[in-house]
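User: Design a sequence. Structure:
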C-alpha cells in the first residue's frame, strides 16, 4: 500500500522536475556551507597558537586567522542562501501539488456516479478533500526538506571524515545506522495506526456535518444528549487511535538520540586516544581535528534525528494520501465523450421494459413501460418508497437502468450526452439548493438572462415582492445578508426553472414548502409554464394534480394504475383510496 502511494506521489511530482533539481542544488549549497564551516573552524583553532618571532617575542598569525574567519563567514552565507532557496522551491512544489490534488478531487465529485455519494456521508467526503489533503501537503513539504538536506549532509560529512581520518569515520559509520534501523522498525508499525486515525477523523467530521445540517431536527426531538454521547464515542475512538499512533511514532526520536549520544562519546574517546598516539608525528590528530570531528559527528547524526522526527508526520501524510488517491481513483460514471447532443427536443418520452434496483438482491422497478407524448402532463403518485423519485433519477440519468431503455424523441438517452439531456429538463425538487451567492446569481445560474426576463420569472413565481424586501434586493448575498424561509427558497428555485424554459419539466414535490395561498398562485404559474411542455409531477397532495393528462399510480416499484383523475376515481382502486385518505371523514368528493 505504502509503495503504491509513494509511486503515485512521484508521478504527481514529475511535472516539477526543474523545481526538484533546484531543490537539490539548494540543498547541496546549504549542506556544503554547513559541512565546510566546522572544517574551517578546526583550522582556525589550530591557528590559535603563539610562535616566537626573530626578536624572540610571542606572536600569533592573525592573517591566517582572518582568512579562515572569512571562509567561515562565506560558509554561513552559503548555508543561509541555500536554505532560503530550498524553502521557496519546496513551498512551490508542495502547494502546487496540493492545489492540483484538491482540484482533481473536486472534479472527481462531479463525475462520480450518484450511487457513490448516496452511500457515503458528505462529511467524510469533505474530510478527504480538505483535512486529508492538508495533512498530505504538510507531510510532503516537511519530507522533501529533510530528505534532500539529510541525504546531502550524510554523504558529504562521511566523505570528508574519511578523507581526514578513516579510523574515526569508521566508528561513526558503523554505529550510526542503528538509529536508522530503529526508526524504520517503528515506522513500519505506525502506518496502519495513522491510517486508522485518518479514517476515525473522517467519521467524526461526517457526524458533525450531519448534525449541524439537521440541528433543527435534533433540537425539535431533544436529541442533544444522545448526539453528544455518540460524538463522545467517536471522539474517544479518535483520541485512542491518535494517541497510539503518536506514542509509538514518538519513541523514534529518543531511541535515535540515544544512539547519537553514543556516537558522540565514541568519537571523543577514539579521537582523544588518536591525538595522544599521533602527537609529534608527521600527521598528528590535532585539537582542531578533534573539534571538527565532534561537529561532524553531530552533523552526521542530526539528519537521522530530523528524519525520525518527521517519520510520524510522513506516515500520517502517506495514510492521508492513500485515502485521497483512493477517492480520486474511484470509478467514474460511464463516459459519454463522443456521443451526439440531444437537440431540437419535442418532448416525447418512452420507458420500454425498464428494470432497476439500487441493490441487486432487492429489485425495485421491473418491466416498466410508459409512453408520454410531447406536451402531456404526467403525475406520479404513490406511497413513500414506491419508486417515484427513482423514476425521476432514471429520467435524468442520475442512475442508468439495469435493463430496458428510456427514449426521448425516439433516442435512447444512453446514446446522447448527459449534459444535453439534462439541459432539456427543468427540475424543481422538494429539497431546495441555493449556493452562497447573490439572488441574481442563483436565479441566472442555468441561463443567460436579461434583467427584465429575471423579474418576469420572479413575478410569475410570486418571489419578486419578498426579494425587494431583502437588504440589497437582487444583489443580496444569501446566507450572509439575507436569510430566507424554506418556502421562499422554493419560490426562487421555481423562478430559476422558469428562466430556463426547457421543453421538459420535472416537479418533485415542488410546492411542499409553500403555504396553501401561495401554492394556488404558484400552481397557476406552473400551468402557464407547462403549456406545450412535457411535465412529470411527483405529488403527495393529490388535489394539485387533478388536471394532469395522465396519472401514474405506483406501488412497490410498479405502476398499478394509470389514467386521468376522474377515470381513476371511477375505477375505485388504490388511487381512490389514497385520494379519500387525504381528507377527514371521507368528505372529499370526485369532481
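Assistant: Done.
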Amino acid at each position: 500500500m505504502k509503495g503504491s502511494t509513494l509511486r503515485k506521489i512521484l508521478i504527481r511530482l514529475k511535472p516539477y522536475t526543474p523545481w526538484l533539481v533546484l531543490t537539490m542544488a539548494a540543498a547541496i549549497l546549504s549542506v556544503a556551507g554547513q559541512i565546510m564551516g566546522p572544517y574551517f573552524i578546526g583550522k582556525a583553532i589550530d591557528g590559535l597558537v603563539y610562535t616566537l618571532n626573530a626578536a624572540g617575542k610571542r606572536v600569533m598569525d592573525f592573517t591566517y586567522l582572518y582568512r579562515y574567519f572569512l571562509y567561515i563567514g562565506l560558509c554561513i552565507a552559503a548555508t543561509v542562501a541555500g536554505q532560503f532557496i530550498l524553502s521557496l522551491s519546496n513551498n512551490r512544489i508542495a502547494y502546487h501539488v496540493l492545489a492540483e490534488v484538491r482540484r482533481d478531487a473536486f472534479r472527481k465529485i462531479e463525475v462520480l456516479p450518484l450511487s457513490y455519494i448516496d452511500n457515503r456521508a458528505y462529511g467524510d467526503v469533505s474530510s478527504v478533500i480538505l483535512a486529508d489533503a492538508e495533512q498530505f501537503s504538510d507531510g510532503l513539504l516537511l519530507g522533501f526538506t529533510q530528505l534532500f538536506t539529510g541525504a546531502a549532509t550524510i554523504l558529504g560529512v562521511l566523505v570528508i571524515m574519511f578523507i581526514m581520518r578513516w579510523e574515526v569515520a569508521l566508528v561513526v559509520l558503523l554505529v550510526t545506522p542503528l538509529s536508522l534501523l530503529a526508526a524504520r522498525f517503528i515506522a513500519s508499525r505506525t502506518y496502519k495506526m495513522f491510517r486508522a486515525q485518518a479514517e476515525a477523523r473522517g467519521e467524526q467530521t461526517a457526524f458533525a456535518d450531519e448534525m449541524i445540517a439537521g440541528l433543527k431536527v435534533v433540537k425539535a426531538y431533544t436529541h442533544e444528549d444522545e448526539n453528544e454521547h455518540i460524538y463522545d464515542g467517536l471522539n474517544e475512538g479518535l483520541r485512542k487511535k491518535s494517541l497510539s499512533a503518536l506514542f509509538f511514532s514518538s519513541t523514534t526520536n529518543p531511541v535515535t538520540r540515544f544512539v547519537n549520544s553514543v556516537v558522540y562519546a565514541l568519537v571523543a574517546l577514539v579521537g582523544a586516544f588518536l591525538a595522544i598516539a599521533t602527537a609529534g608525528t608527521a600527521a598528528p590528530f590535532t585539537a582542531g581535528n578533534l573539534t571538527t570531528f565532534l561537529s561532524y559527528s553531530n552533523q552526521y547524526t542530526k539528519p537521522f534525528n530530523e528524519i525520525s522526527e518527521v517519520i510520524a508526520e510522513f506516515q500520517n501524510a502517506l495514510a492521508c494520501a492513500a485515502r485521497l488517491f483512493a477517492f480520486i481513483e474511484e470509478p467514474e460514471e460511464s463516459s459519454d465523450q463522443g456521443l451526439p447532443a440531444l437537440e431540437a427536443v419535442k418532448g416525447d418520452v418512452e420507458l420500454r421494459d425498464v428494470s432497476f434496483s439500487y441493490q441487486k438482491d432487492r429489485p425495485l422497478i421491473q418491466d416498466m413501460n410508459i409512453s408520454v407524448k410531447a406536451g402531456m402532463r404526467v403525475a406520479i403518485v404513490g406511497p413513500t418508497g414506491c419508486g417515484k423519485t427513482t423514476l425521476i433519477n432514471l429520467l435524468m440519468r442520475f442512475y442508468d437502468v439495469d435493463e430496458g431503455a428510456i427514449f426521448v424523441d425516439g433516442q435512447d438517452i444512453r446514446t446522447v450526452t448527459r449534459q444535453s439531456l439534462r439541459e432539456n429538463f427543468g427540475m424543481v425538487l422538494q429539497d431546495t439548493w441555493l449556493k452562497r451567492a447573490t439572488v441574481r446569481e442563483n436565479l441566472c445560474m442555468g441561463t443567460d438572462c436579461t434583467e427584465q426576463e429575471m423579474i418576469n420569472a420572479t413575478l410569475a413565481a410570486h418571489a419578486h415582492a419578498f426579494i425587494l424586501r431583502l437588504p440589497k434586493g437582487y444583489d443580496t448575498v444569501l446566507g450572509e445578508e439575507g436569510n430566507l424561509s424554506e418556502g421562499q427558497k422554493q419560490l426562487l428555485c421555481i423562478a430559476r426553472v422558469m428562466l430556463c424554459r426547457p421543453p421538459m419539466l420535472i416537479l418533485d414535490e415542488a410546492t411542499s414548502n409553500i403555504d396553501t395561498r401561495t401554492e394556488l398562485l404558484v400552481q397557476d404559474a406552473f400551468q402557464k409554464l407547462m403549456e406545450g411542455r412535457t411535465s412529470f409531477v411527483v405529488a403527495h397532495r393529490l388535489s394539485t394534480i387533478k388536471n394532469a393528462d395522465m396519472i401514474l399510480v405506483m406501488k412497490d416499484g410498479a405502476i398499478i394504475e394509470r389514467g386521468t383523475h376522474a377515470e381513476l376515481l371511477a375505477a375505485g382502486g388504490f388511487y381512490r383510496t389514497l385520494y379519500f385518505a387525504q381528507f377527514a371523514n371521507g368528505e372529499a368528493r370526485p369532481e
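Residues 584-591 have pLDDT under 50 and may be disordered. The first strand starts at residue 51 and ends at 52.
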